[in-house]
Recover the amino acids of this structure.
């Protein structure tokens, strides 16, 4: 199983990432909006290249028999109360370590990309343990958020509205 920190699917109705115009948001993106979590739409400038790369990588990995999940480390960092890389690499590193992650990230030479990769690996671990929430629409693919308790706490705190796009466990895509 490979957790990928990139969009792996296009919004329903969008023919290609290169085609301008709507739709710009997937069901998983709309769910992030309801949670109050910031993200860049896949149709925004540099996100188009990242999305195209993610879609190609997913296809290659799945052709080789790997299961892939779309993880969004920034969303899970927000849900866990960990500062994102925009707050500084040291704050992100400290938050990850406080959350119990380790294995080289304590080194002050660790880059923000490596720390986000650690967060993506954490999402993969939580997925395999069944401690995750997948959001989205099966026709657009799922986005994995973890852990369950952090997502539920966001709802209980009144910081989100419930939506139909929540699924406790996605089917294989």
């Amino acid at each position: 199983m490979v957790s990928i920190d990139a969009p792996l699917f296009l919004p329903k109705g969008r023919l290609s990432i290169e085609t301008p115009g709507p739709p710009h948001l997937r069901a998983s993106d709309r769910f992030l909006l309801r949670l109050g979590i910031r993200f860049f739409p896949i149709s925004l400038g540099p996100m188009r290249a990242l999305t195209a790369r993610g879609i190609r990588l997913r296809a290659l990995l799945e052709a080789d028999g790997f299961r892939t999940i779309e993880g969004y480390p920034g969303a899970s960092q927000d849900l866990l109360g960990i500062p994102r890389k925009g707050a500084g690499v040291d704050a992100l590193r400290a938050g990850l370590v406080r959350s119990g992650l380790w294995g080289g990230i304590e080194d002050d030479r660790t880059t923000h990309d490596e720390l986000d990769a650690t967060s993506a690996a954490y999402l993969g671990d939580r997925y395999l343990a069944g401690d995750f929430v997948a959001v989205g629409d099966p026709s657009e693919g799922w986005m994995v958020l973890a852990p369950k308790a952090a997502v539920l706490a966001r709802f209980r705190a009144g910081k989100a509205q419930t939506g139909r796009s929540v699924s406790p466990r996605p089917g294989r895509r």
